[in-house]
Design goal:
149 residues, 2 strands, two-stranded antiparallel sheet, mainly alpha, Four Helix Bundle (Hemerythrin (Met), subunit A), 6 helices
Length: 149
């Protein structure tokens, strides 16, 4: 499934990196490789927990806004964020398992949406973030090798 491919690709962007490299900020926004995976964990909660179960973000334990989801806590590590992301993906699969693509989810702030829309949105969002991760990773590895121009 394309969604699982993008989930795995984003997770793999951290392969072989040090904690410092994963946290390295190369752009003016809060976007880092570790932050991207933390944000991906947030969007799993928004689209497959909040939208399906109608639980609030505070009940789920996720930030109130997308921007906040990139903030790294001092105790966030590659291992802890990967584990959180893998747990969120498994919970997402479980939450959607009993639903059909045309079933309507009603817990999102945008209003009622078919599950098909949720899947397409997630694929689009994760594909975009995989592109961000590819560029950041390339810069990090180039700096490691001293190949920065």
């Amino acid at each position: 499934m394309f969604l699982d491919d993008h989930r795995a690709a984003l997770n793999a962007c951290l392969d072989g990196l040090t904690e410092g490299e994963a946290r390295r900020s190369l752009v003016p926004s809060r976007t880092t490789l570790l932050g991207l995976l933390k944000h991906a964990t947030f969007v799993e909660g928004v689209w497959f927990d909040e939208a399906i179960t109608k639980r609030s973000r505070s009940e789920i334990g996720i930030p109130a806004s997308p921007d906040e989801s990139f903030i790294l806590d001092p105790d966030d590590t590659i291992g802890s964020i990967r584990a959180s992301h893998q747990h969120a993906c498994a919970a997402s699969r479980e939450a959607a398992a009993a639903l059909g693509l045309d079933d309507i989810v009603t817990g999102n702030r945008r209003g009622p949406l078919p599950l098909r829309w949720v899947y397409l949105h997630m694929i689009r969002e994760l594909a975009q973030h995989c592109g961000h991760a590819d560029i950041l990773r390339e810069q990090i590895l180039a700096a490691r090798d001293g190949d920065v121009t």
